[in-house]
Amino acid sequence: MQHILLLHGAIGSAEQLHPLRERLASSLYHVHSFNFSGHGGKPVSRPLSMELFAEETFAYIKSHALNNLHVFGYSMGGYVAMYLSSVYPGLIGKIVTLGTKYQWSPETAAREVKMLRPEIIEEKVPAFAAALAKKHGNNNWKPLLAATAAMLLQLGDSPLLNTARLQKISSEVLLMIGEKDNMVSPEETTATAQQLQKGSVQILTNTAHPIEQVDINMLSEKILSFFSGVSV
Fold first, then answer.
1. How far apart are CA 75 and CA 128, in angstroms?
2. Tens of pLDDT along 196-206?
3. What percent of the chain has pLDDT over 70?
4. Domains of the chain
5. H or E stretch including 175?
6. Partners of 31 in the beta sheet?
C-alpha cells in the first residue's frame, strides 16, 4: 500500500481537501490529511510559521509510519511540502503542488496581508467571514488571520525556499498552476521549477486559485498519473 498525504492551504483546513481525498483513495493508495496548528479548530502552541507546519507534517509522517509516501500540497501546503523535502531528502517520494507561491518579498507579503483583515472581511464579504467562523471557530478565526499575516510578513522578509534550498530537493516535483490564478503567475511557477533537480510545470486551463473552484476530477487524474508515472 502506498500513501498520499494532502496538505491544506493557509486559513483553510483538511476539510477543504475532502472531495479530493475521496477521489484519490483506492486499493492502491491510502490518503491522509490533517489540520495545521490554528486551523480547523486546532489550538496554537506557538507563533505560526512554515517551519512549525513542516515539523507537524514530519511528526504526522513518523507517527503514522508513512513509507512509500507521496504528497499533494495546495497553496501554502505546497510550500510546506517543498520545505520539508529540502530538510529531509528522501522522506517524500513525489510532490505535487497547486497554486503555491514560491517567490516572496516584503512587497508581495504586504499585498497578501491586506486580504487578511477581519474587519474588512466582515464588512465586504460577510459570507466568507461566516465560513471562516464555522471552519475555525467563532473565537479562533480572527486570531488565525492575525497569526497568518505575521507569518507571511516574516516569510516576505526571509523566504525559506531560496535557490540553494530548492536545489536540495531530490523528489520529483510537479508544480501545477491555474491559468486564472490571481495570486500566483505561471511565470514565477516556471522559474521555480527550473531551479529544481526534477521539476516540471503544468498549467491548468480555465482554473482559478480557490481549490473549491477547481475541477476535482481533472485534478485527481493528473495527481494520480504523476504519482504512478503515467502521463496524461
1. 18
2. 999 999 999 99
3. 99
4. 2-102+161-228 (3.40.50.1820)
5. strand 172-178
6. 4
